[in-house]
Amino acid sequence: MTMQITELAHVTELLETYQNKVVKLDELVEAISQGYVRVSYHPEFPLAIFNYTEKAVQDAAWSPAVRASRGLIIDNTGRVIARPFPKFFNHNEAHAPSIHPANTVRVTDKLDGSLGVIYVWEGETYIATRGSFVSAQAIHATKVLREKYPTFRPPDGVTVLVEIVYPQNRIVVDYGALDDLILLGAVANFSGLIFSQEAIPEWTGPVAATLPADTFADALALVDRQNAEGVVVLDLFSNQQVKIKQQDYVAKHRIVTRTNPRVIWEYLAVNSCQHIIHDPKHWGSKLGIDPKRAAGILATGPNWLEIFVQSMPKDFSDWLCDTARSLQAQMFAVWDEIDDVEAGYFGSGKTRAEIAEEIKDHPHKAGIFASLDDKNLLPYCWKAVYPPASRAWASTE
């Protein structure tokens, strides 16, 4: 049976029988209508998965309903099939809960993979990611679960959560050849109570490491570790979680999740043209780049590529260098094409009007005239190879 619910009215109808105290129905429906929560459907089973959107992140629209929509799965009767951790924040973010330094906490390693939500349907165990039943990570994780832990079943009424780690899913932290599911903890479907890994003795696989910190003050004082993202802190008094991320990880994560071909183009174009463009406002007129953005790029220094690839995943480094080489080759190809056309007019005696008529349909007629006027072609050629919009090398679901 396949659920085909695509209209908001149908989602509302589905949730009318939603009895568990996970979110308020009206809040969830409003969040969906505002574009803060996306609903996706299983291709075979009558299941829906709720996930907050990038718009929610941009608008900081963190209502309880939006925070709960982090892989929440329900069936077509409104029954909760899986309830993951709600969205939680870095300890220094505005929406993070206030935790007293003396509060007793549990601190575990913050793993750098994909969240896996274990759920059971018709006696079979599967894994979803927080926004999809059929993402590449979900399919891979379900395969690992079946092969390594074929007898595992979550306790009734409890959602078990794992980190999906395998080489092709590396973001920043290097786990080597590890291809496994690492137990993070669990959540009671009805109450939302968060359980530690010890509450799931049925799990025979790896678990997230516990760090030596008894209080929140201890957690904040932990020393940064090599090849690590940070820690997750569970306040045992309030049952709320926060993240403490290492600054070295944050810097690297920003690079891999924000670098796309357009960003690479910006760095190449600005560094190539810095000796030509002296008036900051001309970054906009000549290359279409905001002057403040150009200043930030120049502040990184001419060795920006080396900085970007340092201690990064090899796949990312290879992609970055290949993309940079490709863009440079495209730029020089445009330059060569303009030079070839201009050479045909050298000493021809033709007037500008005659040349204009002959090249009126040429895609680089503006560049040809710039060359005829002895203007530097770098800004034009770089602007001509501005890449189309595309996603960053790595993205978080």
Task: Give the gist of this structure.
By secondary structure, the chain is α+β, with helices and mostly antiparallel strands. It is built from 15 helices and 13 strands.
Which short descriptors sum up this protein?
alpha+beta; single chain; T4-Rnl1-like_N; 4-stranded antiparallel sheet; 3 domains; 397 residues; elongated; 2'-5' RNA ligase; 18% strand; ligase activity
Number of distinct helices:
15
Indicate the CATH class of the largest domain: Alpha Beta
Q: Order of helices and strands, N to C? A: HHEEHHEEEEEEHEEEHEEHHHHHHHHH
Specify the overall morphology.
elongated
User: End-to-end distance, in Å?
Assistant: 27 Å
- Order of adjacent strands in the largest pleated sheet: 8-7-9-10-11
Helix/strand class: alpha+beta
Structure description:
The protein is of the alpha+beta class and 397 residues long. It has 3 domains: 1-81, no CATH class; 83-245, D-amino Acid Aminotransferase, Chain A, domain 1; 259-384, no CATH class. The protein is built from 15 helices and 13 strands. The strands form 3 sheets. It has a 5-stranded antiparallel β-sheet, covered by helices on one side. Strand 7 (114-121) and strand 8 (124-128) form a beta hairpin. The radius of gyration is 27 Å and the shape is elongated. It starts with 7 loop residues before the first helix and ends in a 13-residue tail after the last helix. 34% of the residues are buried. One of its GO terms (molecular function) is ligase activity. Keywords: Ligase. It holds the Pfam family RNA_lig_T4_1. Residues 69-191 form the T4 RNA ligase 1-like N-terminal domain.
